[in-house]
Every structure is written in structure tokens, then in C-alpha cells.
Amino acid sequence: MSNSTKPIIFIGYSPFLAVKSSRFFFILLVALFTKITTRAQTEVKLSGDYLNTSLKEVILKIESETAYQIYFIDEWVSNDSISVSFQNLELVDALNKILEETTLNYYVKEDEKRIFLLENTIVYDELPRGFFGREENSSNPNNVAVRTNAPPPTFYNENTRKTKRKYAVARVGKSDPNNLRETYNLKGRAINARTGEAVQDLAIRIKGSSIITVTNESGNYELELPAGYNVISVRAMGIAASEREVIMYNDGSLDLVLEEGLQQLDEVVVEADAAKNVEEAITGSEQIDSEESKNIPLVLGERDILQVAKALPGISSAGEGATGLNVRGGKTDQNLVLLDDAVIYNPQHFFGIFQALNPFTTKGVDIYKGAIPVEFGGRLSSVFDIRTKNGNVEEIAGEGSIGPVTGNLALELPLKKDHSSLVIGARGAYADWILRSLDDESLNNSNASFFDGIMKYHNKINDNNEVKATAYYSRDAFSITSDSLYNYSNRLFSTRWDHRFNEKTTGALVLGNSNYGFGIDFDGEANTDFNLDYSINETELKYKLRTILNDKNALDYGISAKYYSVNPGSIQPNGNESNISSIFIDDEQAIEGALYLGDEIKLSDKLLVDLGVRYAFFAALGSGTQRTYQDGLPRNESTVQDTISYGRGEVIETYGGPEARVSARYLFTPDFSIKASFNNSYQFLHTLSNNTTVSPIDTWKLSDLNIKPQTGYQASLGLYKNFKENEYEVSLEGYYKLMDNVLDFKTGADLFLNENVETEVLQGDGKAYGVEFLLKKNKGRLNGWLGYTYSRSLYRFASEFSEERVNNGEFFPSNFDKPHDVSLIANYRFTRRYSVSANFVYQTGRPVTYPIGTFRFNNADFVAFSNRNEFRIPDFFRLDLGVNIEGNHKKQKLAHSFVTISVYNVLGRNNPYSVFFVTEDGEVKALQSSIFAIPIPSITYNFKF
């Protein structure tokens, strides 16, 4: 029979009765239960084996096997399942086993063969020890009043409440007669109900007392509450003030899911990390929020955080329309670009004009160009740690845009309220008309397109576990000539499990896979049609932890392992009539690993030191063949000494060593500091390119027997100052960098589909140094920043052999050496809806090699070239303007809109992309090509719901 009943009133350390009771009244009530034992004396023995069985089903089965009737409220047991097994246990022992992992207790009334299930609470059939404020025993013969730790019983009546409750009463813990205390610990996490993100700096106070705590950056809190009934109130900027009724039976947890709220303030602004630039120990770090690109006029109105990054000191590119970024004099391959912990090899579309990231799914990027955190490695110059948004866990939300070149849409879909969500983003281009409008007749019949898609799953399982998974794919296809179709693509997947072990230690297990590849399909008039392809794939497993030892020490430590697989390229005939011969270059494999340990040490309120050591390891693996060359002679076909074959998985060569991460900050005042740092790194992966700027068909090459890893050492020193309550930021930072084994190429080198590429490349020394200045205004109608960089980037290839020596072994400017770089970003807001913005860029022209004469030899004309990169193309400068119009701010709208009207290159400056030379009528002529030689207007409509 069903034994669910109406609620029954019990007495004990629990809220069941609302009476302003005297002790006498309590004694009368307790007398009703006098002389009732709480342990069954029956000889009944029970056995059971239950797997994911409904708790209600288990209870009813026990009732059917005994002479007892069990009383409970149906909702207490209907939604729980248990897995338990026991043999020949007495009734009370079986009940203890079954209810062990629940919040239910029980009370046995033996004389009536009844069992009452109780939620959280317990029932006592005698007065608690010390109830009258005294304790009588042999050690207290005079009956002196002695206070005990047992709290007084709690009485609470739901029916006496006159006002409607917004939140249900929270009952925490499970009463244990062996653990009765005056106070219990409550912990949990504060969560934004709309976004699912943590609410930090939330003030939680016990009403009627001075006890208060504040949530940390992860939204976690811990509070000690009196046993029984409590009311806690919560307050935070942007969060609706609320109160929660909490009844403490024992230690337990309670997550606070909070609604957003608006509050009218009189000139009060609360900021998080407002002085982070001054206070943190790391040098050369920058942080860009995706929203920052909203009001910056960019080419064709497309939001682009990587273009915004190029406006910061120390970050540039080789030229307009060049893919890749050069950071502090480093090559484009020296940047580690991560998207949700997985490497993205080419994060740009359409020759570098657009980023390959959906701006509406991208949350922001952390850039490290000075002191790189100890968990990162494998690159010499910088880390771009790009993060995507977590989805809305409350309701469907979305954002999109329609522009002259691209269409973009992102959706946030809640899967389980307050816990899990899915973000989906898609983006496509209709860009053919751009190529036809460029200042180059050869491009008039060209076509180009690209698209990218991203999906992110986020699930907060509980207070201690959180799972994220991201999948991403992008593809570009373009045809510059009528007979060739080029394509390149990025694909990545990552999954991350964050786990909190305790209040001091958190960890993350990360698995990621990345793939980059390109291809060329040639279909010409002759019988030379072919298909060409290249790809690189890597898989990484990383486990990282953070332990806050005390107020002065925070440890970061972990391990990572990575596996590379490279297809160096292949070419195959396209069609049966093609005369092209198939070529396949042997695949390359390697493993890369690292162990690291870092400690952020707070030596005093003024001095903060970040110390770290990382050990990097690399092994090139077979199968494959490697050549050896004669010592003391240049590498070429005539100096080959031997060819060694390696089996699959056999170690070809190993490299590695320790890497230091040291940085320190000293605060002169709360808004003025000095910082210094030093770090060294190994890079085992290289790009092979003999183009002036990086292109989509550059190949990546692993270190092996003949190509050594690059190494770098960087020291930096800077001053940081904030003014007017962090309204203005000013920084001045200098750096000096040395590099070994950087790659370049021999004149006329053939790099692609060359199985002995080591004979075409050079490895030498590099150095880079500079000073970076940044003035930033964060508040007010006018905001933005002014950045200036003076920097040099120099290479030297000083081999003893002339064919492997460049510029007589002297240092010469790299292809991206630009001594002066000025950027100005400004936005002026007239009202909440209307604003104007400007973007000004000036850069020294990049180096170039010019022909300086001709000579005749054996009845043939030859051109004599200058030293490499001895001259420079004209300086670059550009001005962009934009007008931003927001829709009205009515809350009840289907969608909120935002319109951007911008003009890229307002002055029509004919900035050179490249300078090249042709011979006409016996004369050598210099020609210049430009990407955007005219003003490019655009209008983009953005919407959000």
C-alpha cells in the first residue's frame, strides 16, 4: 500500500513548529513521546541489492517485508535514486545504509510498529543534555550550571508567514545527534542567472548580525551560520538585492542563483581590476575585450580583435594585407595563438584582412609579449590566449550582423537551466567584389570566399566540476588566376574539465587537437594539371593545477604532452592526361612535452615576485630518412656523407632544456609601480617561406637532425602609472631580446616539396630591442589610446661559407623591421546612442632589397642587387573614421540594433603593399602594388536579442 501522508509535525532540532515556546511547553510536547525507543528491537533481518533504484520503491519494498508502516511525504523520495547493497542487516542498520547519502533521517515508534521519515531533522524522546543550562554528573557534585554545545531546538511554521516568499526556504545538511553544534559551515557559489557566469565581490551577510563574507573571483563563498533558522542578504553591483531563508541542520552547500538588477547611482562606479596594469607582476601583458572592437573603424566594418591588437605598442604586421602578427621583433611563427586551449595556426581570413574568429562568440584575448606565464611554451615571442563566451543558461539569446562582405550570426541556447548551454556561431563572406575593386588589373577576374563555424558546450555540473568543449572549423578558397584555386583551412577541437579539490587547490585537464592545411588545384590549358596539398596536425594533453598555499604564496604547476604529425606536401596529376609526376614527401612526427612549476610570492604589500621554471623536451621521430653532411663544408648535394633510415617511432634527435620565468613588481604608491622580467624559451616548430610576408601556403617544419630549435631570451623593464582614479593609464616599457637558430632562406631557395630542405635554409642569430609607450583613457565621453613604439629587429647569418652567409655576416634588418610605429584609437560619445570614432596609423616603411645595377656576362644581362633589406619602401600611414548609431534602449524589444558607418583609408593613401621590378626594353623598372589605394566605405547592421 502507499504510505505517503500529509505532513506530520515532529519535535527536535528542526523547524516544524512555530511557537514562541517556553521550556515548560517544550517539556509537555516531549512528554507525548516519552519512553519510546529509537532503535527497533525486532529480530527482522533484511537483504537487498539495488542499482539506480527509486528510493520510494526501496522504502515500499522494506515496508512489505516487515510488520512496520512507513510514513513519509511523497516529494521527499520520488525524485531520488540510490545504489546500495546489504545482507542480513537489522531494520535500523538497513535504514541507515539506505538513507546514508540522502538528507533523510527516520524515527521508529516500536510499540506501534511505525517508522516516520524526516527531512533533514531528527526527533528526540528525551530532553537534550544540559537543556536547563546545567550538567549533573559525578564531576559536578554541586550541580553547577554548565553550558553545553548543543543548540536549542528550532521551531518554524510555514503557515504563519503573511507575505509571499520569492525563494523557497533552503534546508542545508542532515541532522546528526553525534554532531550537534552551535554553528555550521555553509559554502557555495554565486551565479548570474542570465549568463551562468560567476558573481564575484558579492556581499553576503547574516541578517541581524555583523557576520559578512564576500565571494572570490570564482564566485565561491564560505560562511559560518548559527544552527537553525537564519536569513542571509546578498548585495552586489548589477545584481538585484535579495534575501534567503536558510535552516542549518549540519554543514552543507547552497548555490545562489541571482537575478541581474539595475541601480541608480550618483557618480559612483565600481570597477574590477581597475589597477591591474599597475598591480600585477607580469610585464608586457595586454587584455582586449571583444566589445572594445565595437567602436573602432575597421576595414569593411568587421569587428576584429586581432586588428585592435595591432594598434597596441609592440605588435604589428609586415604590411597591409599580410597575415600573421609580428610581436617585439619576432617572426609570425613565434606567436602561440590559442582558441579555448587549442592552437589555431592561421587565425586570419582573406590575406589577413579579416580575422578567422567570430566576434560575437569571442569573449576576449589575453596577450603576453613580455613575461609569458609558466604554463605556456613552444614559441619565442608571444601568446594570444583567445577565449569564447559561455552561453546563456536562462534563455535563448543571439547576436548577428550584416555587412558589405560578411554575414554573421551567433546563438546561445540553454540546455539545462542554470547549468548548461550551447553557443553556435557561423559566418560567411561574399568577397569577390573586393578583389575586382583593388588597384590591380590582374585581379579583376579573381574570386574569393571564406566561412567559419564554432560551437561551444558549457556545463557547470556542480560546485566542484565544470566542463567545456569547443569545436571550430574555417576555410578559405580563392582564385587569383583563372587556372588555379587555392584553399586553406583550420580545424580544432578542445575539451576542458575544471575541478576544485578544496578551497585552496583547483585543477584543469585539457585535451586539444588542431589541424591546418592548404591545397592548390591547377587546371591549365596544357597537360600540367595537378593537385597539391600540405597539412600539420597536433594533439595535446595538459594537466594544470593551482594551489593557494597562504596569503603570500600561490603555486601554478602542471604537465603537458603534445604529438605532431606533418604531411610536408604532395603533388599528384589531375586527370589521366596530365604529365605531372607524383611526388610524396615523407611524413614527419615528433613529441613535445613540458613540466612546469611557478610561485607567485607576495614578499610585502609593495613587492610581488613571480618565479617559474619550465623544462621543455622535444623528440623527432621516424619513420623517415635523414641526411648527414661532411663537417667543415656547406650543406649541398656534393657534401652528403650518409643517409640514415629510421623506423616508425624511432627517435631521430632530441632537444630540450630549462626555461626561466621571472618577473617582479614594486609599488611606489597604489597607482605607480615598476616591473622587470626575464624569460627564455625553446621553439621546435618553424615556418618555411621565401615570401616577403607570410602567406597561406607557407609550410611548417619540425626540428630534426639538421634543423635545430630556435631559442630566445628576453629581458624587460617598465614603469606604470594611473591617474585620476584609474581614468588614465600611462606605461613606458623597454625590452631586449636575443634569438639563436632563427631561420631564413638562401637566395632563390626552393622550399616546398623539397625532401632535403635543410640545404635551402639558413640558421643564424637575431636580436630585437625597443621602447613602448602607451597612454590610455578609460572613462568619459572621450576614450581610447595613443601608442608609440620604437623598435629594431635584426638578423645575422655569419657562416664561414659564402653561400650560407648574408650581407657579409653582418646584422641586417628583418623583413618586418619598422623603427617607428604610432597608433591612435579614439572614440567620442555624444549621447548613449551616437558616437564617432577614429583610427590613425603611421609606420616606417619595411625593408626591401633593390636592384642597384646591371652587368653583362657571357653575352647575357644580369641584375646586381643591393645588400639584403638595405632600402625601405615608403612610409605607411592611414586614417579611418566611423559613426556609430545605437537603436533606442527600450527594454521590451524583439532585438536591439547597432549600425556602424565607416570609411577605411579616408585620405585615399596609396600605401605600398610591395615593390617589385620588371625589365622593359632593357631597363629595370620599379613597380608598386597596393591593397587599398582608395577610400573604402562600408555600413554594417548589428542586432542583438
From TrEMBL:
UniProt domain TonB-dependent receptor plug: residue ranges: 301-378
Location relative to the cell: Cell outer membrane
Domain called TonB-dependent receptor-like beta-barrel: residue spans: 449-905
Record keyword Membrane present: yes
Pfam families for the chain: CarbopepD_reg_2 (PF13715), Plug (PF07715), TonB_dep_Rec_b-barrel (PF00593)
Signal peptide: none
Keyword list, A-Z: Cell outer membrane, Membrane, Receptor, TonB box, Transmembrane, Transmembrane beta strand, Transport
InterPro entries associated with the record: Beta-barrel_TonB, Beta-barrel_TonB_sf, CarboxyPept-like_regulatory, Plug_dom, Plug_dom_sf, TonB-dep_rcpt-like
Topological type in the membrane: Multi-pass membrane protein
Protein family per UniProt: Belongs to the TonB-dependent receptor family.
UniProt protein name: TonB-dependent receptor
Species annotation: Croceitalea vernalis
